[in-house]
Amino acid sequence: MASVESRQSVAIVGTGMAGLITAWIIRNDSRASKKTLSLDSASLTVSNLAGDKQRVDLPMRAFASGFYDNLKRMYDYFGIEYGKQKFIFPFSTVENETEPGRRPKIHTSFIHSSHTHQFPPLRPQGSTWLTWLTEALYLGICYLWIVSCSIFIKPIEANSSRPSETFRQYAARIRLPQYFVKNYYLPIMSAVTTCPHNALLDFPAIDIVDYQAKTFGKPHYTVIGGVSKVQDKLSKGLNVHYSSAAIRVENVGAKVQLTWKNDITGSTGSKLFDHVIMAVTPDVVRAIFPPLRSALAVIPTSTVPAYVHRDFDRLPKCNQVVNGGIRSEPGLPSPERIHLCSNSSSTEFTHEHLSSVIITTSPILPIDPSKIEHTVFFTRTLRTPLSQKVTKEIFDPKTSSDFGDSKQWRNGDGNIWLVGSWCWDGMVLLEGCIASALRVAEELDIEVPWAL
Ligand SMILES: Cc1cc2nc3c(=O)[nH]c(=O)nc-3n(C[C@H](O)[C@H](O)[C@H](O)COP(=O)(O)OP(=O)(O)OC[C@H]3O[C@@H](n4cnc5c(N)ncnc54)[C@H](O)[C@@H]3O)c2cc1C
């Protein structure tokens, strides 16, 4: 938890990207729970094969032009260096996962390079020239189709009689082939959303279509040296209460009372502020802020496990092809490999970090426990047409409330605010953190130096 002393007192609950950027904005108004900050708390430093130390960001927090305009402008303002990052994505499926006692057979069907930077694509081991060429041609056509649709065929929006179109319905409407959806599109999009395939099919189609259209052909970037650089810039001078978890936020008269519990001593404390900004996931908001307890019940969250390990034996065999065929450009970091390995319901992501460790997120196959060096669990907020509707009602003053309660709480009521990657009508990514922080700044009439 961070508090910002200024002419008005403001407490911010949560020190992820949204909490830190909001704290920075408020503290630098020109007119006026953890042992560490959490933005970088899951990341770690490892030695690479040459013995040099390298920072491994957990989660990766890559971003792309087109979608992350506010994030890029903020990084540029702070002089945070970021660089283009290419990726190689081998797509594999587990073929006999359910047969007890047998080692699962992994079949790699295609090796995609981000923005087709590697052309022609690498041919997976065991794939004949004919199957490889047919697969490449088929994927090229399907991909061009979904990109064209994302630009020209808009998803159906919600109205008073029906919810917004889901991606499942949109894919059927544009006749996107099932084989492509199941084996390629859901795996790659679930790398962006880290959720099982069925949950992704239930996302509002507009989220995926909008992300697809905005990022098509645009490069990916990562922060050079890791997001600790961002954390350092944003947190300078903040008064942070480490190891304190907010347990209740409530209005007391014209003020807002924040009550917290110290994780180490177990003691509780509370203080009155002019404003409290909650920069936490919706499940936490429900627990600490009673007025949203029932409304936020429709916003699903899931726990996403990530393992940093050195179990190289579980990497698919296609790696021999990738190792031999990968092309690096002078002056740019080598392309990073992210293996997408799917079963019938979900995809695991195995990122071979250049530092020599492997990060497996949402594993569907076992990892040798003796080779695991670090485990983290993240909370991911998912989207559905219903959660989209509730989010709009809370954050968009123009949307009429349908909760049947005219006193439905809206962002800013009683000087209590919400920011975070889920606090906007779009994909739950870092851009949502900045967009929601900027909205609070605007409402509080605070000028943000990098905002347009
Ligand atoms: C595996 C994975 C990979 C991802 N990759 C990307 C990516 O490449 N690009 C991208 O844009 N996004 C990515 N995301 C999404 C992105 O990282 C998150 O959406 C974003 O970091 C959320 O930031 P936030 O500040 O809204 O919330 P959080 O980061 O969740 O921060 C909230 C913080 O509040 C703290 N907290 C919780 N309860 C309390 C309490 N009671 N009191 C005080 N503090 C509390 C928590 O410790 C937490 O750290 C990824 C997410 C995951 C899980």
TrEMBL record:
The chain crosses the membrane at residues 6-26. GO terms for molecular function: oxidoreductase activity. Residues 210-443 form the Amine oxidase domain. It comes from the Eukaryota. It comes from Penicillium malachiteum. The keyword Ribosomal protein does not apply. The keyword Metal-binding does not apply. SUPFAM superfamilies: FAD/NAD(P)-binding domain (SSF51905). The lineage of its organism: Eukaryota, Fungi, Dikarya, Ascomycota, Pezizomycotina. Coiled coil: none annotated. It holds the Pfam family NAD_binding_8. Keywords: Membrane, Transmembrane, Transmembrane helix. This is Amine oxidase domain-containing protein.
